[in-house]
Amino acid sequence: MSITRTPGQIARARYTTKAYDPARPLTATQVEELLDVLYLSPSSINSQPWHFLIAADAQARARVAEGTQGAYAYNAPKVRGASLVLVLAARREMTDDHIAAVLDQEQADGRFASEEARAQRAQSCAGFVELHRSQLHDARHWMEKQVYLALGGLLFAAGAMGIDATPMEGFDPAVLDNALGLPAQGLGSVVLVALGHRGAGDFNATLPKSRLPRGQVFTWL
Ligand SMILES: Cc1cc2nc3c(=O)[nH]c(=O)nc-3n(C[C@H](O)[C@H](O)[C@H](O)COP(=O)(O)O)c2cc1C
């Protein structure tokens, strides 16, 4: 796949899709490409404090749609109509076992030239974890920030691939978590993403983009 548009062109062209064409599914190759982008997303201390649930058929999407009832019903048609819906979840706790698993993986992947190198890295990781757990008391928030970073990469990648997308905070995490059994896995849903191709009823496709004036957003130092 070659991408011929500049990053700015991609950013100007992508937008939040409000209605999907159920007759135009993503290909298996496109899905794998998007999952690779999530899988390889960077995270603080390579903590990868996430899990991504993949809903790629009507039954799975209906399970995710359980979280878009009542006040969030406006998002239900996107969840049901898109080709692929991803639940981006974060760990509820940053455990020592999880960090040890990351270090073991880094070792298996050949990132430590010596035991000393691993020990240094373990100490650095422990320092960050301790900072968020015991000083800032924001470990869960810290992990959710990593999930949002993955969201950003995914949305840009989808745009680059000509795939339409909808990020969604409009759902009930408690309802969805219970429907998917996430609490028992030590996980909590953070944000949903619907992906596919826009449908005829997508009112947002022809609306102009709107952002605050550049002068309010940038300061050249
Ligand atoms: C984290 C996040 C959550 C969002 N939640 C929803 C949502 O629940 N439903 C929806 O239709 N749009 C949602 N949006 C879309 C935003 O309204 C949209 O990104 C913003 O208005 C900018 O428009 P654009 O994405 O078309 O450039 C969300 C966007 C982000 C980044």
How many beta-strand elements?
4
Poorly predicted spans: none
Structural class: alpha+beta
Number of helices: 9
Q: How many domains, as an integer?
A: 1
Name of the CATH first level: Alpha Beta
Rg (CA only): 19 Å
Mean pLDDT: 97
* Distinct ligand kinds: flavin mononucleotide
The share of residues in extended strands comes to 5-15%
Provide the spatial order of strands within the biggest beta sheet: 1-2-4-3
Distance between the termini: 38 Å
Q: Can you tell me about this structure?
A:
By secondary structure, the protein is an alpha+beta fold. It has a four-stranded antiparallel sheet with strand order 1-2-4-3, with helices on both faces. It has one domain: 3-Layer(aba) Sandwich (NADH Oxidase). It starts with 6 loop residues before the first helix and ends with a helix. The protein contains nine helices and four strands. 46% of the residues lie in helices and 13% in strands. It is globular, with a radius of gyration of 19 Å. Flavin mononucleotide binds next to strand 3.
Task: Break the fold down into its secondary structure elements and pairings.
Blueprint: H1 7-13, H2 28-39, E1 50-55, H3 58-65, H4 76-81, E2 84-91, H5 96-108, H6 115-135, H7 139-160, E3 164-168, H8 173-180, E4 187-196, H9 214-217
Helix pairs in contact: 5-6
The protein binds flavin mononucleotide (FMN).
The site of flavin mononucleotide has 11 residues, from strand 3.
Keywords:
221 residues, alpha+beta, NADH Oxidase, 9 helices, 4 strands
Q: Could you write a compact summary of the structure shown?
A:
This protein is an alpha+beta fold. Helices cover 46% and strands 13% of the residues. Helix 5 (96-108) packs antiparallel against helix 6.
